[in-house]
Amino acid sequence: MPKTIQKEKKKLEIVKVACKLFAQQGYYNTTIPDIANELGMSVGNLYNYFKSKEELAKYIMHYSSSLLGEEIRKINEMDISTKEKISLLVRRFIKIAEENPDVLRRSLQRRGLDPSLIDKAIELDRLWRQKVREVDEIRHKHNLITRKIASTRDPGEKRKLIEEAKRLIKRRQELEEELKRIAAEREKLL
């Protein structure tokens, strides 16, 4: 691996650790030795990457802005409706937040916003995906049961299958209501 790529990878590792410490301890309470210690590297070695904590903070601001800015640019260039662009942007933001939560927490803190919003958005998105998977599984099971009902000649077996299909429909409806509630919470949050 070329040296410049290795250096950039190490810089990103430093950024992630610094953001985690800034989020936990605050920017002013975190020192370069704290960051170096967390990384298991010497202070002198860390200074090979960033000349000061201020330079590191500027790099973090630039990095977090470029992460979001690049995504916004890509989405804006897409030939889709504004509503679809916003929806896609929110999903991409959540994905970036899942991959780099401390970077975005630091960015929100810097702007005077509540960094716990990221955790709430990630949790709501995780819950949303889980419920969607459950609905898909129920639909699949319901389709299988519907086929069995059509092919079964035994009236007793048919009744059991119909009851199972009704139970699955009821559970799917409950999950769909939960999805509506989660969607409303996501809307309020964003």
Q: Give me the secondary-structure category.
A: mainly alpha
Mean pLDDT: 83
Total number of strands: 0
Largest sheet: none
Q: Give Rg in angstroms.
A: 24 Å
The fraction of residues assigned to DSSP E strands is under 5%
Question: Helical percent range?
Answer: over 70%
What's the number of helices? 8
Elements, N to C (H/E): HHHHHHHH
Low-pLDDT sequence parts:
none
End-to-end distance: 40 Å
User: Which overall shape is indicated by the principal axes computed on the Cα atoms?
Assistant: elongated
Structural notes for this entry:
By secondary structure, the protein is mainly alpha-helical. The chain is 84% helix and 0% strand. It has eight helices and no strands. It has helices at 3-25, 32-39, 43-47, 53-76, 82-99, 101-110, 116-151, 155-189. The longest helix is centred in the C-terminal third of the chain and has 36 residues, at 116-151. The mean pLDDT is 83.
Fill in the keyword field for this structure:
mainly alpha; single chain; 0% strand
